[in-house]
Amino acid sequence: MSSSRPPGQDAVQARARSYQLEMLGESMKENIIVAMDTGSGKTYIAVLRIMAELECCPPEKLVWFLAPTVALCIQQHEVISSQVPAARIRLFIGSDNVDRWSEQRIWDAALKDVQIVVSTHAVLADALSHGFVGIWKLALLIFDEGKLLPQYP
């Protein structure tokens, strides 16, 4: 019998530790904060949650992954891209001149057919505050390095 999951997802979940699967399960029920030591697999939990969301969300919805620095955005984009290769992923950082995207058509073109966006908090905050992205468009919002959130908008 074939799985309805994207290719490789069963293998990805098979590698998950029991506590990672427990956190995934809890995140499917409610909003959660995963506070664990460095190297304990928080990003892997996020990848599992992203894959689960992509299975059930409508195609017009986005998964948005926020990281506090450009370096972390680049790192997490690489990780997510390698773990979810079938997904259409965009990295939005300052070198893309995102701060100059002042028209809806620019945002619409940048987000066309995209399933996952990785950016800093400021990029999403600007897009939301100027109305280029509506909060209703987000199926899942992941905050990386949550301990740093009070420092960012």
Q: H/E element string?
A: HHHEHEHEHE
Q: Mean pLDDT score, rounded? A: 87
Q: Percent of residues in beta strands?
A: 5-15%
Radius of gyration: 15 Å
Apparent shape: globular
Determine the N-to-C terminus distance.
47 Å
Major sheet size, sense and barrel closure: 4 strands, parallel
Number of helices: 6
Helix content: 40-55%
- Which structural category do the helix and sheet elements fall into? alpha/beta
Q: Count of DSSP E strands?
A: 4
Strand order of the largest sheet: 2-3-1-4
Low-confidence stretches: 1-8
Task: Describe the protein's topology.
Layout: H1 9-14, H2 18-29, H3 42-56, E1 62-67, H4 70-83, E2 89-92, H5 104-111, E3 116-120, H6 121-129, E4 138-143
Parallel strand pairs: 1-3, 1-4, 2-3
Quick recap:
With 153 residues, this protein is α/β, with parallel strands linked by helices. Helices cover 42% and strands 14% of the residues. Helix 2 packs across helix 3 (42-56).
